[in-house]
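hi! just following up on the protien thing from before. the input was this:
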Amino acid sequence: MHEIKQINALAELCGIPAHYIDAAGKPVTIETDYKINALKAMGIATGNELEIQASIDSILRKQRSSLVPVVHVVHYGESFTVPIQVDEAHRKDAISGEIILEDSRTIPLNIDLSELSEEDRLSVDQKERIRLLFSLPNDLPEGYHQLTLTHDFYNETHREQCRLIVAPATCYEPNILSFERPGPTEKIWGVSVQLYTLRSENNWGMGDFSDLKQLVTELGPQGADIVGLNPIHSLYPANPLHCSPYSPSSRNFINPLYIDATALKEYQDSAEIQAYVASDDFQKQLQKARNSSHVEYDRVASLKFSILEMAFIHFEKHDQAHQSYRSADFGHYCEEKGQNLELQATYEALFEHFKAQDLNSWGWNCWPTEYQDPDSSSVQEFVVQSKDRIRFYMYLQWLAEQQLADAQQAALDAGMRVGIYRDLAVGVDRGGADVWAHRDNYVLNASVGAPPDTVAPQGQNWGLPPFDPNQLHELAYQPFIEMVYANMQHCAALRIDHVMAILRLWWCPPDKTADYGVYVSYPLQDLLGIIKLESQRQQCLIFGEDLGTVPPEIEAALPPAYFYSNEVVLFSRTEDHFLAPEKYKPRALTCISNHDIPTLRAWWNCNDLDLRQELGIYDAARTEQEKAARHEDKLALLNTLQRLGELPYGLNPNDIHSMGYSREVMEKVHYYLGKTASKIVVIQLEDVLELDTPVNVPGTSSEYRNWSRKLTRNISEIFASEENRLFFRNLGLTRKA
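and the predicted 3d structure came back as:
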């Protein structure tokens, strides 16, 4: 019994709560053994009572031994205070210090500890340790500053430093969406796309950044103001079949398969490259890639990388050799990105090297031990021997960023008042570049997931190693800052997948189902402060994907910070109707469905339920049960459309035989979407084209071709349709009504 109490105390210290509220609103008590699994994953000793107590003492000693924390975040609109911890013997001493602002200005400090209010006290190593609150200057500018305190306790001079982050009160919000602007608040609309699904006359078998430019250029004149993307994070160039955008190798870099090789200056300047592309064999492979119903990632990668490699050789021979403007720009880019870019490119070259030796080499875990550490002599020797290949991968990142930036500028030039929004995945693949380069930042003996609910009775395990919250704090949140900054580049907004992760993550133990997991806490206010600061600096609107079980802490913290919510119409049924338009959250991005939900046509016709039975996810009984529930959903939706005067012609909620799907059903449901109070709504081109196949079936991998299904029409064909243009125009009118 005593050991259980110790485990509970240790777990609480490590951010593992004793209880949580499940999807049904019921409290769930976390089993002691489950807590032990998470503690072990953190590297904390729990073998016996002595080990447990030693772990508790060690954590308390570390928390209370320093004069100031490693990092401290304050927010405008709240008191600017920082904790200072001293022994009781020094309660009346004086200390000096300074705040070095981000712009190098210095604010001197002289602190009389006797004048500070006491917040807490605790006995550590048989000494009474007191936490005091020091009031900082209340006019500190927003930014990343450094607080340094100097003391002469015990006849020794010590200097301790704290990264002081001063955050704004809210995230950035464009003027057109602000409630504070004169006149009525505007409501805008746009499109969300899985970029790889786009078809065009010119791409090489998957959507690319030139397709994105074409899309925004077509959408702008239709009245759209925003276009959302799937995560475009770096995957594995040498393993293109690893295609899930939500399981990236790195969240700080871009997937080079989105580069349009034909848009490069090197391509346009090289007759040799153009002749190679024009060859019969290349064109034959290109047509196969373009004509396929799904992205053939192997074929696309083979075509694209053959040309990108030729382009790089041309760049080195001409631009680099003659020190052109482009060469200088590439040099500046590499200097700005620094070691992180070098590590990313080194990883790509190593992955490619070992993949060529063993097709089953899926990540750094498979490499010889001496290559698993980026600081090893073997890796350094590889860097010297492979400098050209590493430079090639750095070159690809430079190109990708340029083309993404061009697409955002094209959106603005087309009249869009926001432009592109990017999507930040909740984690990274454990075999990828981020984990290889910064192993200590991750907990490798746990995986991110979700607790059991009615949809997944054993919970969900997404297989992604979580950030180590303790290491994040020790590094003054630098990895988190770099990730947020990188994903706010060349866009106007950022969607944060599973935004609850800034408060807590469900950690699943290895070799067990997700129902053996626990929640682990993260510093919500600190991470939120960083997001707000970067949002204002990059003028980047923020959405949080807050679907599912949303804890009250998230609901209390995000809306006041102008952190937009994510509403989904198909999840918005209440009894015999769906939410009235005015009941939707104003500060929200609202959609009919998303990449994890069937298209509207598939939902209406229950194709998704039949598919789940076909894939073995549902048995026949469950399928029929779900179809009955779906019928009630459709009746509720029709009731809502009828109340709004948008009931499709000939459809009668009381007549099951009249309830066939049609183009008009699609349009009327979207006009309901357009009438919602949400400031932003987005539609999917899948619904405009009336597709009934999903881009992803959650809970499947090899059973279904996830993340590859293309659209059925080229971009130019979509916008050449008078029917589509009329629909876009009408949707815009509903937003202004």
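The first strand starts at residue 19 and ends at 21.
The longest helix spans residues 325-357.
cheers
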